[in-house]
Design brief:
Blueprint (H helix, E strand, L loop, with lengths): L11 E5 L3 H13 L4 E5 L3 H12 L9 E4 L10 E4 L15 H16 L6 E4 L4 H12 L6 E3 L3 H15 L6 E2 L2 E2 L7 E2 L5 E2 L2 E2 H7 L5 H23 L4 H15 L4 E3 L2 E5 L5 E6 L2 E4 L2 E5 L6 H20 L6
Parallel strand pairs: 1-2, 1-4, 2-3, 4-5, 5-6
Antiparallel strand pairs: 7-10, 8-9, 10-11, 12-15, 13-14, 15-16
Helix pairs in contact: 1-2, 1-8, 3-4, 5-7
Length: 323
């Protein structure tokens, strides 16, 4: 079943959760001009009203848009819902530590969406995003292709930035993905990484770098730990993920068929099924069209399976049914 809403015409987005991430997403989307109508929903209505008012003051510097605080009835004709609501990750806390708190929050949000027979795209951003994407799919009753998570889109951007700095080359010319969990078990898909079609190792040597193993280990560690570094310094990350959300929304609204490492349901790829995992996928107006089978080494496939098993165990421990 395809999306009943024509997202290229019904360009209204609802953001559920007006904390740091939700507000930053609303601000980024306002500047993008993608949605002429942006609705903010929060458990604290005054917070949603304040953020909507603050952001709306910048409209004269951007494109015309209507930004306001609303309620769940506003989702019925929305083309997209973005869920950022959830507990913040604290210093020293992993994304997986947020599971119980945020599953509980989702159990209060998703029935509101389900009972309104929502027909648009549902984008999960709250952490742990892969687990909550599976939870959202189970509780919403929506078709799989219309439920996706922000996944490792931000991690992949962090990887490209690190590689761009390392090689002194435009990060947009780098083609590489972080896959698996958006978290501590994430994997850099080094086997398929390239710079404008040139295998990464070969390009590194062109730029005078030969200690590949040492450099890859350092870059992978820096990418994985970057959120912890930011949280330790400013208590939360929000600008980077807001830009990632804008990028995913662009792909959907413009029906770009872009390949992004979003989180979506697995059906046997690499021997993994029944859970949502962050993998490269073609993203367009109907959500996730299909996964893209990138080249992975045997070790990378083993690490991907371990990452999936980590998420599966967490879901089972929290009584979420998985295959």
């Amino acid at each position: 079943m395809k999306n009943n809403l024509n997202i290229t015409q019904t360009r209204k987005i609802v953001i559920i959760g007006c904390g740091f991430v939700g507000a930053a997403c609303a601000f980024s989307l306002m500047q993008s001009g993608l949605f002429p109508e942006i609705v903010l929903i929060d458990s604290d209505p005054a917070k949603a009203e304040g953020e909507a008012l603050d952001i709306s003051h910048g409209i004269p510097f951007a494109k015309p848009a209507k930004i306001y605080a609303g309620n769940y009835d506003d989702i019925t004709d929305a083309s997209m819902i973005v869920i950022t609501a959830g507990a913040n990750q604290k210093p020293g806390e992993t994304r997986l530590d947020l599971v119980k708190k945020n599953i509980s929050i989702f159990k209060s949000i998703l029935p509101e969406i389900r009972c309104r027979n929502y027909q648009g795209i549902l984008l999960v951003v709250a952490n742990p995003v892969d687990i909550l994407t599976t939870v959202a799919l189970k509780l919403s009753g929506m078709p799989e292709h219309r439920v996706l998570g922000s996944g490792t889109v931000l991690d992949t951007a962090r990887l490209k930035r690190e590689l761009g700095d390392h090689l002194n080359v435009d990060s947009r010319s780098i083609h590489a993905f972080i896959i698996g969990e958006h978290g501590d078990s994430e994997i850099v898909a080094w086997s398929s990484a390239n710079v404008s079609g040139i295998p990464l190792h070969r390009f590194c040597e062109m730029r005078g770098f030969f200690n590949h193993d040492e450099a890859m280990e350092r870059i992978a560690s820096d990418v994985k730990n970057s959120a912890y570094e930011i949280i330790a310094r400013k208590r939360a990350t929000y600008f980077g993920i807001a830009m990632a959300v804008k990028r995913i929304c662009e792909a959907i609204v413009r029906d770009e068929k872009s390949i992004l490492s979003v989180s979506s349901m697995m059906h046997g790829e690499y021997g993994i099924q029944g859970i949502s995992l962050s993998m490269p996928a073609i993203v367009g107006k109907d959500g996730v069209e299909t996964h893209v089978p990138i080249q992975l080494s045997q070790q990378e496939q083993m690490n991907l399976k371990k990452s999936a098993d980590t998420l599966r165990n967490i879901l089972v421990q929290n009584d979420i049914e998985v295959i």
